[in-house]
Design goal:
By secondary structure, this protein is of the alpha/beta class. It has two domains: about 120 residues, BRCT domain (Rossmann fold); about 140 residues, Trna Endonuclease, Chain: A, domain 1 (3-Layer(aba) Sandwich). The protein has six helices and 16 strands. The chain has a four-stranded parallel beta sheet with strand order 5-2-6-7, with helices on both faces. Strands 13-14-15-16 form a four-stranded mixed beta sheet. The longest helix has 26 residues. It is elongated, with a radius of gyration of 22 Å.
Length: about 280
């Protein structure tokens, strides 16, 4: 906000001053500007019809649809102005329609990179990014909860141990990838609810994390394999940006080495703490 370079994310609509162009697709419905303004105001944002330095967030609607074509090319002028301000050190956050829908739903939205079309100064493009439709905002670490003691103490102790081990493994994975300057992210708003995701080049890695005990090792690994294959299949059927790589992350190395070959033959990267080989 206020022209300062953001951390790459728009975390909330509250306190933002918005400028819109065109219609925005919200949960499958084209939404006119008046409706977008009303929703934004309920969530603590304000609105300006024209672009100026008072605008902190520019919402870029769909430009290909006949329904949002502007004969005066106002949408182009506004985007050119946003790029012009950025070039001069005044950062204006830009989100696309999906990002605006994410913000309405309580999810962070990626601040978009802008690029001028080759050979022109009056056409600015909002660039797609690897992981669009798959990866959400930065993954937040959670503290495991504990249950009151009682008649089900034994079962709840096992549940708590699994939760603590799960969160410890996630935290270790985040630290491991952060050392490589890789940001671990959660799932996108409409993507399958995988545990962690990240990108490298044009590849998007989606991971399911499983804690293990001697008693449940086979069951947990079978469950994890089924879940991550299902998530990857759903994403391949959807319109997403990036090559999906499924990953099964375990608390520790499995006792039976057959799981490594089985996962490999299934197209899954099987890895475990603390080294996270292959990640």
């Amino acid at each position: 906000m206020d022209g300062k370079l953001c951390d790459g994310w728009v975390h909330s609509l509250r306190g933002q001053r918005l400028c819109f162009t065109g219609k925005v697709l919200i949960d499958g419905e084209w939404t006119v500007r008046k409706r977008c303004v009303e929703v934004s105001q309920r969530l603590g944002a304000s609105w300006k019809p024209d672009f100026s330095r008072k605008v902190t967030l520019f919402v870029h609607g769909d430009l290909a649809s006949q329904a949002v074509t502007d004969a005066q090319r106002d949408y182009s002028k506004k985007l050119v102005r946003a790029a012009w301000e950025r070039d001069r050190g005044y950062h204006v956050c830009v989100v696309d329609g999906d990002g605006f829908a994410d913000l309405i739903g309580g999810y962070p939205a990626r601040c978009r990179e802008l690029q001028r079309a080759q050979g022109t100064d009056d056409q600015v493009l909002v660039l797609p990014q690897v992981g669009d439709g798959i990866l959400g905002g930065p993954l937040q670490r959670h503290r495991p909860s504990h249950h009151e003691s009682g008649a089900l103490k034994l079962d709840l102790d096992h549940l708590d141990r699994g939760t603590e081990a799960h969160e410890s493994t996630v935290a270790a994975l985040i630290s491991h990838l952060a050392d490589q300057q890789v940001e671990v992210r959660g799932h996108a708003r409409n993507a399958p609810r995988f545990d962690a995701g990240w990108s490298r080049g044009d590849e998007v890695f989606i991971a399911e994390v499983k804690s293990l005990s001697d008693a449940n090792e086979d069951q947990q690994i079978r469950l994890g394999i089924g879940q991550i294959l299902d998530y990857a299949h759903q994403l391949k059927l959807a319109r997403t940006h990036g090559l999906v790589r499924p990953v099964l992350v375990l608390e520790r190395q499995p006792g039976d080495p057959r799981w490594v070959s089985l996962a490999s033959e299934s197209g899954i990267l099987l890895t475990w703490a603390p080294g996270f080989r292959g990640c």
